[in-house]
């Protein structure tokens, strides 16, 4: 189903900074706690034995052309996931011709001989698919989609066309256009974001010249520009052949029929030449290498240290996973203990493996607070390593990590696509799909001695690569002995890009076939969609409970919400609710932060707390057999908060750092500035839940305590729960909260809806030397309970909500090559609503992109056709088959009913609205609720080159939002 509602007003660009995800687990010394741990540890070991016996049944067969096919049956939902995985990534490229594998990830969606131009995207829209998507890594390229099961034959037909009937459709014009799209992706993900070049510097120095991992998956702009059509076709013919591909189909399938379809559509595609497996090529450093880079976007110094390790699935891969988690996660983790708690140099430490087929690397990343010298950070890292060398890892810590692995294992298999991906991964890289039952056993077999051994083998006193990325003017913060890194900075010049005509139809010789492949297969037997049943209860204390019972996986996901959030923050102290969330699960009155973390993680659970504009939420996932114990701990958190002064000060410092980081991200800047413009500075929603520097500095611990006592009450509490649990069990687990939690009245403020602007206005925020401009256009829209709210999202599908089925994406990406992506959306809740268009475009086409958007906005309503409506209805109605597949989707459904007072059968009511929708009604909706001449047009980009040009849009002179911005020399 199309989603109308926003789960939080915290926009995606800010969410990573604003939400604090806590994976808890630490050792402690209390005798009572040790006793509790011992019980939990025994239970954890029993749980992991259960995981080791878990298996996913599948059938594998191989066609004569070498295509490996894996089928898995899952009857839980009427859907099927189809994934085509080619064993080719950037590692198979050549120096000077990098980025080809990723380029093909793009090209393969554009056209094939029998589906035609844009045929795959059109098909996806008609059949209600999840949208054709792909990903590229160092060693593989994936193409995947989940569809209603009645469209499975259509997807098999389409995937076969992609593999065997595609390459002739790639012409000079097609290649030129897609080069621009990929370049825009690189600008967005690398060039126009803080620390974007860090991985490039690391890999260039970690691996010798010519090593398959010494360049980036996305390649270089120069290599992409120099790629010829002959180069591209040669690469495809070498690697995208049946004997180098695994086809995975998982879901509610008929195995016999599916095998027949696979053979029909794939059998006659010829195999390629035999392909040899790449041998392991681990990096070898003779001495430590230190590099630094002065980053145009950075607001704080970043230190990264990288050690060569082993390929994925090597025996040492598993203890290295445990080592990285133990060193960096949890209150007593050595790196956390020294860098965060003791020395207060940072708020987060990340240690993780970047492991692939022929080599691996362990990466330690620390973003220090503003002004912190990275030499001080390095000294703290050495001190933390010495702590580990003295103490090692305890049995309790080993047990909690293993318990977490079991939960993660099940979570990775919670969708048919997840199962399909895992089976293909094991088939290609682990010796066979049957490894799915061995992977968890490997992690469970790790011992304390293994963890210390891999530390001594790969980390202790071993050479590494260190990178120091620092803000402009702060080179004195870099690690001693560092030399300047070689970073290629693209120069954006007007009219410098290669031109192309996207309207030119490709002329090519058709590939012969034994049957007529131009005929799209018929739908299979029609399916009936039955939304899951939602149950609700209200306890005597006032707590509302809503949930869905589903025993597909032994998991439970929940969220405990307290209405109010930022709306209840004291005057001039915005950010109080967020600081309460940041500290709420840092211990209880009877448990230290270390003790609480340990108990939660020994259950294999994850838990986090967050604040939005409208609520505070404690959420988590746990194995269903441990849900009661986890909820007992959550109840203790709510009833007996610790309010630890030390944890409060750490959280406050972390928030201040997050606020600074927003300034480093043009997308985050755009989100913050748009809110202010849309709502006006006096409106509560013009702020973000983090607060600002001044308001956060005003907050003391007593403010957080006062917020808790005044506003956290069962009268505003809601528990949403889904998974392997029934209604009575869920109610029973809340007995402590229901019986012990004193009720108090909480008065939620009345929030006004913002007024539509009187006229359009352009606003500009200067980010000197930006490689892209972030466009954020929009105005107010109806709130969620308005009679037209859902229909507006349906109407928006063809405007900008339907991905490649939308006009905005087709024009700005496919026809113009201006952007990597663009989207429009209607989002709303019980208070207000917004209509917004968001994109990041190449800097030198800022005006042209804005004009193209405006042209579409001006004409969309008048030109909306019966064909548009057919496509929209087809997608909206058929996509219901996969609307409730995952726990997250089910939890969203429960939240929408509970939060917004929707009817239990609102899904069916919305289907009826779609079925009766007419072209005239869509035109009325567009006319009433989309106003191009009363819109906020916000651009975040390079003022020097783009500001004055924007007056040509016809909305007067742009208003500069940060006139005091300084351009660095």
Task: Please name the defining characteristics of this protein.
single chain, 969 residues, alpha+beta, seven-stranded mixed sheet, six-stranded mixed sheet, 34 helices, 40% helix, 18% strand, globular, disordered N terminus
What's the structural blueprint in terms of helices and strands?
Elements: H1 12-18, E1 20-22, H2 31-52, E2 59-62, E3 68-73, E4 79-86, H3 100-107, E5 111-112, E6 116-117, H4 119-127, E7 133-136, E8 141-148, H5 152-164, H6 172-191, H7 198-206, H8 221-226, H9 229-239, E9 245-251, H10 255-266, E10 289-295, E11 302-308, H11 317-328, H12 334-342, E12 346-355, E13 360-368, H13 374-391, H14 395-412, H15 416-429, H16 439-444, H17 448-458, E14 465-471, E15 483-484, E16 535-538, E17 544-549, E18 555-563, H18 576-584, H19 593-602, E19 606-611, E20 615-623, H20 627-639, H21 645-662, H22 666-679, H23 693-698, H24 701-711, E21 717-723, H25 727-732, H26 735-740, E22 761-766, E23 772-781, H27 789-801, H28 807-815, E24 819-828, E25 833-842, H29 846-863, H30 866-878, H31 887-900, H32 906-915, H33 919-929, E26 936-941, H34 943-946, E27 959-960
Parallel strand pairs: 3-9, 10-14, 10-15, 17-21, 22-26, 22-27
Antiparallel strand pairs: 1-19, 2-3, 4-8, 4-9, 5-6, 7-8, 11-13, 11-14, 12-13, 16-17, 18-20, 18-21, 19-20, 23-25, 23-26, 24-25
Summarize the structure in words:
- The chain is an alpha+beta fold.
- Helix content is 40%, strand content 18%.
- A seven-stranded mixed beta sheet has the order 1-19-20-18-21-17-16, with helices on both faces. Strands 2-3-9-4-8-7 form a six-stranded mixed beta sheet, sandwiched between helices.
- A hairpin with a 3-residue loop joins strand 19 (606-611) and strand 20 (615-623).
- Helix 3 packs across helix 6 and helix 27 packs across helix 30 (866-878).
- The longest helix is centred in the first third of the chain and has 22 residues, at 31-52.
- The protein is globular.
- Mean pLDDT is 90; it is low at 1-41.
């Amino acid at each position: 189903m199309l989603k109308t509602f926003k789960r939080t007003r915290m926009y995606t660009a800010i969410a990573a900074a604003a939400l604090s995800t806590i994976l808890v687990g630490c050792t402690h010394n209390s005798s009572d706690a040790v006793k509790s741990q011992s019980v939990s540890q025994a239970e954890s070991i029993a749980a992991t034995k259960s995981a080791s016996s878990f298996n996913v049944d599948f059938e594998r067969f191989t066609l004569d052309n070498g295509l490996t096919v894996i089928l898995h049956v899952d009857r839980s939902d009427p859907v099927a996931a189809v994934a085509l995985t080619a064993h080719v990534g950037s590692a198979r490229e050549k120096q000077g011709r990098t980025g080809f594998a990723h380029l093909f990830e793009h090209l393969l969606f554009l056209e094939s001989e029998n589906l035609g131009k844009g045929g795959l995207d059109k098909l996806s829209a008609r059949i209600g698919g999840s949208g054709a998507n792909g990903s590229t890594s160092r060693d593989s390229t994936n193409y995947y989609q989940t569809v209603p099961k009645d469209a499975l034959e259509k997807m098999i037909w389409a995937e076969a066309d992609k593999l065997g009937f595609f390459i002739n459709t790639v012409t000079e014009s097609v290649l030129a256009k897609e080069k621009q799209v990929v370049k825009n992706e690189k600008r967005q993900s690398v060039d126009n974001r803080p620390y974007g070049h860090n991985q490039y510097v690391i890999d260039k120095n970690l691996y010798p010249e010519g090593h398959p991992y010494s360049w980036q998956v996305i390649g270089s702009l120069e290599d992409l520009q120099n790629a010829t059509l002959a180069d591209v076709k040669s690469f495809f013919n070498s690697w995208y052949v049946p004997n180098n591909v695994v086809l995975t189909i998982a879901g509610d399938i008929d195995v016999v029929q599916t095998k027949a379809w696979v053979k029909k559509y794939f059998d006659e595609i010829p195999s390629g030449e035999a392909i040899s497996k790449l041998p392991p090529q681990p990096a070898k450093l003779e001495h430590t290498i230190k590099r630094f880079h002065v980053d145009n976007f950075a607001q704080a110094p970043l230190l990264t240290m990288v050690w060569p390790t082993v390929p994925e699935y090597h025996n040492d891969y598993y203890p290295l996973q445990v080592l990285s988690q133990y060193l960096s996660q949890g209150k007593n983790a050595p790196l956390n203990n020294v860098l965060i708690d003791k020395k207060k140099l940072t708020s987060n430490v990340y240690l993780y493996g970047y492991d692939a087929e022929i080599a691996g690397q362990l990466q330690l990343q620390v973003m220090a607070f503003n002004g912190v010298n990275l030499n001080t950070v390095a000294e703290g890292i050495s001190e933390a390593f010495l702590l580990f060398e003295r103490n090692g890892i305890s049995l309790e810590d080993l047990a909690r990590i293993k318990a977490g692995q079991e939960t993660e294992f099940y979570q990775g298999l919670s969708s048919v696509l997840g199962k399909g991906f895992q089976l293909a991964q094991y088939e290609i890289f682990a010796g066979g799909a049957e490894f799915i039952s061995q992977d968890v056993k490997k992690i469970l077999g790790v011992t304390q001695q293994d963890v210390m051994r891999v530390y001594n083998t790969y980390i202790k006193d071993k050479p590494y690569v260190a990178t120091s990325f620092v803000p402009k003017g702060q080179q004195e913060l870099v690690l001693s002995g560092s030399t300047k890194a070689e970073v290629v900075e693209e120069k954006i010049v007007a009219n410098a890009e290669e031109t192309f005509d996207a309207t030119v139809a490709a002329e090519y010789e058709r590939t012969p076939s034994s049957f007529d492949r131009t005929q799209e297969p018929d739908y299979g037997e029609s399916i009936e969609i039955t939304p899951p049943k939602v149950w609700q209860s209200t306890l005597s204390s006032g707590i509302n409970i809503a949930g869905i019972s589903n025993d597909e996986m032994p998991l439970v996901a929940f969220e405990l919400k307290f209405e109010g959030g930022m709306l209840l923050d004291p005057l001039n102290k915005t950010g109080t609710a967020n600081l309460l969330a940041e500290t709420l699960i840092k211990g209880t009155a009877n448990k230290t932060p270390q003790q609480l973390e340990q108990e939660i993680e020994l259950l294999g659970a994850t838990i986090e707390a967050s604040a939005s504009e409208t609520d505070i939420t404690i959420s988590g996932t746990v194995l269903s057999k441990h849900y009661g114990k986890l909820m007992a701990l959550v109840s203790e958190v709510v009833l007996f908060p610790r309010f630890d002064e030390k944890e409060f000060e750490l959280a406050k410092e972390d928030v201040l750092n997050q606020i600074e980081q927003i300034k480093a991200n043009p997308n985050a800047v755009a989100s913050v500035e748009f809110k202010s413009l849309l709502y006006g500075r006096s409106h509560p929603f013009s702020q973000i839940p983090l607060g600002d520097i001044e308001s956060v500095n005003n907050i003391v611990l007593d403010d957080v305590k006062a917020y808790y006592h005044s506003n956290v009450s069962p009268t505003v509490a809601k528990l949403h729960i889904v998974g392997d649990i029934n209604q009575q069990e869920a109610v029973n687990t809340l007995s402590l909260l229901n019986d012990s939690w004193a009720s108090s009245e909480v008065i939620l403020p009345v929030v006004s809806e913002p007024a539509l602007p009187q006229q359009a206005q352009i606003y500009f925020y200067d980010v000197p030397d930006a490689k892209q401009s972030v466009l954020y256009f929009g105005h107010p829209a109806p709130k969620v309970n308005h009679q037209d709210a859902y229909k507006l999202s349906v109407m928006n599908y063809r405007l900008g909500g339907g991905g490649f089925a939308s006009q905005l994406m087709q024009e700005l990406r496919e026809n113009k090559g201006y952007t990597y992506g663009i989207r429009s959306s209607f989002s709303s809740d019980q208070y207000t609503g917004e209509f917004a268009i968001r994109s990041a475009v190449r800097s030198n086409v800022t005006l042209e992109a804005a004009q193209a958007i405006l042209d579409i906005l001006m004409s969309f309503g008048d030109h909306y056709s019966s064909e548009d409506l057919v496509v929209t209805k087809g997608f909206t109605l058929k996509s219901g088959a996969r609307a409730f597949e995952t726990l997250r989707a089910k939890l969203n459904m429960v939240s929408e009913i509970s939060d917004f007072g929707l009817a239990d059968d609102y899904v069916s009511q919305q289907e009826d609205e779609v079925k009766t929708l007419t072209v005239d009604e869509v035109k009325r909706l567009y006319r009433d609720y989309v106003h191009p001449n009363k819109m906020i047009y916000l651009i975040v980009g390079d003022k020097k080159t783009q500001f004055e040009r924007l007056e040509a849009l016809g909305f007067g002179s742009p208003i500069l939002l940060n006139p005091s911005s300084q351009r660095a020399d």
